[in-house]
């Protein structure tokens, strides 16, 4: 925190005293020219957009040695990432539970969302992505289940000129070393004389590591250490083809296949009691997760005079196979538990869209979307004493679920002088049916989702946006299906609630932005979400068999989520003509909801209230070198104290502020290649969590990435 306080005055000096002289970059390196071109194009798209959007390309994706997209997204306003150290696989916007935002690939929600609908972001190689679009308040033409925001990931497409390139990277945690590596190869051929264009990509990645967790209890004096060793291996194959039938008709096909294997071994000497505090207990476990995804998308568009018709058909099939065994010391002996889980998930999607240009000041966008999900989940849990021929207990949490969704929308874009109006209307119908070993049920509902956006181009530098839209958030599948998922690792049991309904309400946002070419971009925004039926897990008590905590999702009363965001980008000449790029943002998030257990108002559980990010790039033209640095500060968050019907209390859990500093250097050894060294968590910051008298400290260590890129 002290480093951050010392950093802010220096940054303020740069922002207020930087020269406004437009100094032309003397570098002619291919990689830098590509990044600059993409950054300028992204800025143009952001300024042109009617709804508030952020486009991430080039420099955002390639900087600071990111392991995956989570590393890119955690530097953006309002976004907090979760996951294994340096993998960052789960996104949370405005501090809300991760099922409140939509993660889409090519405008489609992939089937690999598992129980909670969220897609693991570390499964997508950064080198495969051309663009990420962040939309805090999407209009009626976008999917509605993005209550907190929409993250749309666009994969690379056929290039305009022949390209060949790749990267070779060594990754490792430091002290001790846990080396891994990455290999990326790509080739692209543009279309020529009606010969289809092609782009192909191969990515291989392995990420080993070790995490140490220190636990201590001030009241009992018990303390100890738990160790987690893991290895994550990914492989990804991608290909896309673009064809043109004639001057008015063209299309593309994209196919992506990815597999991920994660092996994890955990050993410990101390664990949490179910009722709080710590206890000394030998514990060991091995877990393996295998994830796979096959995604195929066909898109075709037809142009005729002032009308454009687009049709997209997609298939997404994914699988999850999980195996976990555990040996735990108990008074009666060594207890063994075994978890087997297999998920087969399939989704089909068809989107038909029409864009009609009535005249220069009036456009109509309309569309129809059909979506189908099938989820076949087999989940078995066994427990017993080691050495015994039979299991003492076993649980079956298997289910089969069908989900049909249909949506229709219309938007009318009208230009009146310097004003652009975008009223829209969307309606969605959904029907779900589940079947477990004990029961079956279904749910159906219809949602009416109007929206209104206004953009005012005050002058060539100032833009003002305001919007309001009704949005929704479908509960995670596991929240709705009435099965009991036993989590031995966390010593909790999650119980589904078939009476749970989707959260829905009004989102509003106001944005002011100022842009000066080649120098400074500023934006200030505020948002207010007024939601009904927000869902949150509620503590019910303790299980009599396992003595685990039981949680059940419930709908809350009306909730208010609100906040402010400030962001800035600056480009200055620097010393002796070297170019300095700075980008920073600050987010304040807050909420207010009535507690379901106590007659009080509080914030939503685990909402991070303060976020700060700053990144810097300094070009040394003479030495063909770029120095990179970034700081990320995540404020505290709290899971509030809860009480069950019998008076048992689970004390509040507070995650303390966390600061991470990353830095690196990149040397351009030729116009078509570069070598780099990146260090993440340079200061070795630790994650600290407090619950009553218990303190948990996770040492994630310092991570290194050493490699080179080439692009011919």
State the gist of this model.
The protein is mostly beta strands and 712 residues long.
Task: Explain how this protein is built.
This protein has 712 residues and is mainly β. 7% of the residues lie in helices and 63% in strands. It contains 5 helices and 40 strands. It has a 22-stranded antiparallel barrel. A 4-stranded mixed β-sheet has the order 1-5-6-4. A hairpin with a 4-residue loop joins strand 21 and strand 22. The longest helix is centred in the N-terminal third of the chain and has 19 residues, at 30-48. The chain starts with a helix and ends with a strand. Residues 1-27 have low confidence and may be disordered.
Please state the CA-atom Rg, rounded to the nearest Å: 26 Å
Task: Please mark out the parts with pLDDT under 50 across 5 or more consecutive residues, or reply none.
Answer: 1-27
Tell me the major beta sheet.
22 strands, antiparallel, barrel
Strand content: over 45%
Strand segment tally = 40
- Ends apart, CA distance between termini: 43 Å
Report the helical percentage: under 10%
């Amino acid at each position: 925190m002290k480093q951050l306080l010392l950093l802010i005055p220096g940054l303020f000096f740069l922002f207020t005293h930087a020269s406004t002289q437009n100094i032309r970059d003397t570098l002619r390196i291919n990689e830098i020219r590509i990044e600059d071109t993409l950054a300028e194009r992204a800025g143009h798209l952001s300024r042109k957009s009617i709804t508030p959007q952020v486009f991430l390309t080039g420099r955002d994706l390639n900087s600071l040695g990111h392991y995956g997209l989570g590393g890119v997204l955690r530097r953006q306003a309002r976004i907090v990432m979760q996951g294994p150290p340096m993998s960052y696989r789960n996104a949370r916007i405005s501090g809300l539970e991760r099922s409140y935002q939509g993660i889409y690939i090519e405008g489609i929600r992939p089937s690999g969302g598992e129980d909670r609908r969220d897609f693991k972001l570390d499964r997508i190689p950064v080198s495969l992505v051309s663009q990420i679009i962040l939309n805090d308040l999407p209009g009626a033409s976008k999917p509605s289940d993005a209550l907190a925001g929409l993250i749309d990931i666009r994969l690379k497409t056929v290039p305009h000129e022949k390209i060949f390139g790749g990267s070779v990277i060594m990754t490792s945690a430091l002290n001790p070393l846990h080396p891994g590596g990455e290999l990326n190869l790509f080739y692209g051929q543009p279309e020529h004389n009606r010969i289809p264009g092609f782009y192909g990509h191969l990515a291989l990645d392995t990420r080993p590591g070790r995490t140490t967790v220190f636990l201590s209890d001030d009241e009992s004096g018990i303390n100890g250490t738990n160790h987690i060793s893991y290895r994550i291996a990914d492989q990804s194959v991608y290909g896309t083809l673009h064809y043109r039938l004639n001057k008015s008709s063209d299309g593309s096909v994209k196919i992506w296949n990815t597999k991920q294997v994660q092996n994890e071994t955990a050993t410990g000497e101390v664990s949490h009691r179910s009722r709080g505090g710590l206890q000394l207990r030998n514990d060991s476990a091995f877990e393996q997760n295998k994830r796979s995804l096959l995604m195929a998308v066909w898109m075709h568009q037809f142009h005729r005079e002032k009308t454009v018709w687009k049709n997209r058909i997609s298939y997404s099939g994914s699988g999850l196979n999980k195996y976990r065994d555990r040996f735990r010391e108990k008074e009666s002996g060594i207890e063994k538990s075994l978890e087997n889980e297999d998920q087969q998930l399939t989704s089909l999607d068809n989107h038909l869209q029409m864009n009609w240009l009535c005249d220069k000041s009036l456009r109509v966008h309309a569309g129809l979307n059909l979506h189908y999900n099938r989820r076949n989940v087999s989940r078995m849990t066994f427990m017993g004493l080691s050495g015994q021929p039979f299991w003492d207990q076993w649980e079956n949490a298997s289910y089969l679920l069908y989900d049909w969704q249909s949506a229709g929308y219309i938007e009318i874009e009208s230009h009146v002088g310097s004003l652009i109006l975008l009223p829209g209307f969307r309606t969605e119908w959904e029907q779900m049916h589940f079947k477990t070993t004990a029961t079956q049920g279904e749910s159906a509902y219809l949602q009416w989702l109007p929206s209104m956006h206004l953009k005012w181009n005050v002058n060539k530098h100032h833009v003002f946006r305001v919007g309001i839209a009704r949005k929704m958030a479908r509960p995670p599948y596991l929240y709705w299906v009435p099965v009991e998922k036993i989590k031995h690792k966390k010593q909790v049991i999650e119980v589904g609630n078939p009476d749970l309904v989707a959260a829905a309400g009004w989102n509003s946002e106001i944005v002011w932005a100022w842009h000066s070419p080649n120098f400074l971009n500023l934006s200030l925004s505020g948002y207010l979400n007024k939601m009904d039926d927000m869902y949150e897990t509620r503590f019910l008590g303790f299980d009599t068999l396992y003595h685990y905590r039981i949680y059940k999702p419930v709908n809350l009363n009306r909730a208010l989520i609100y906040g402010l965001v400030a962001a800035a980008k600056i480009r200055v000449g620097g010393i002796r003509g070297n170019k300095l790029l700075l980008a920073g943002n600050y987010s304040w998030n807050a909420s207010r909801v009535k507690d379901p257990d106590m007659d009080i108002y509080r914030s939503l559980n685990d909402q991070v209230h303060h976020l700060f990010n700053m990144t810097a790039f300094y070009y040394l033209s003479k030495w063909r070198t770029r120095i990179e640095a970034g700081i990320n500060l995540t404020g505290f968050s709290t899971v509030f104290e809860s009480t069950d019907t019998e008076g048992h209390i689970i004390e509040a859990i507070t995650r303390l502020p966390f600061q991470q500093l990353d830095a690196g250097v990149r040397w351009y050894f030729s116009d078509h290649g570069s070598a780099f060294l990146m260090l993440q968590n340079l200061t070795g910051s630790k994650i600290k969590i407090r619950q009553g008298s218990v303190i948990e400290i996770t040492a994630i260590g310092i991570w290194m990435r050493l490699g080179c890129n080439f692009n011919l």
